[in-house]
Specification:
With about 100 residues, the chain is α+β, with helices and mostly antiparallel strands. Helix content is about 35%, strand content about 25%. The chain starts with a strand and ends in a 10-residue tail after the last helix.
Length: about 100
């Protein structure tokens, strides 16, 4: 896993632009969203830019920090991270919840 980085266009510019992986968005110390970028699909960087621009809704635009992790099976890793979060907090991260 990477450290948490400021969720700004300048920082996101240095995120992985190829390969698959998972990423998390935080507001302060609170996890807002856990997502994945699939191998051969949009990159982690492209997904993060979409969140920054509000293309994924207003909820994730509130993020102050982000982190990422490369993965051979991003969707499976995303599900593992969501399960861990659910076990700890008895709910999904706020921006992962279906409205």
């Amino acid at each position: 896993r990477s450290p948490k980085w400021p969720f700004t266009p300048a920082a996101v510019e240095y995120s992985p632009d190829e390969g698959g992986g998972v990423y998390g968005l935080w507001r302060g110390e609170t996890v807002l969203f856990i997502g994945s970028a699939q191998v051969g699909g949009k990159s982690i960087k492209a997904d993060l830019v979409s969140h920054l621009k509000g293309e994924r809704g207003a909820c994730t635009q509130e993020a102050t920090h982000y982190g990422w992790e490369l993965s051979q099976d991003p969707k499976q890793r995303e599900l593992e991270l969501l399960k861990e979060y659910l076990e700890r907090h008895r709910a999904y991260p706020r921006c992962n919840q279906k409205h």
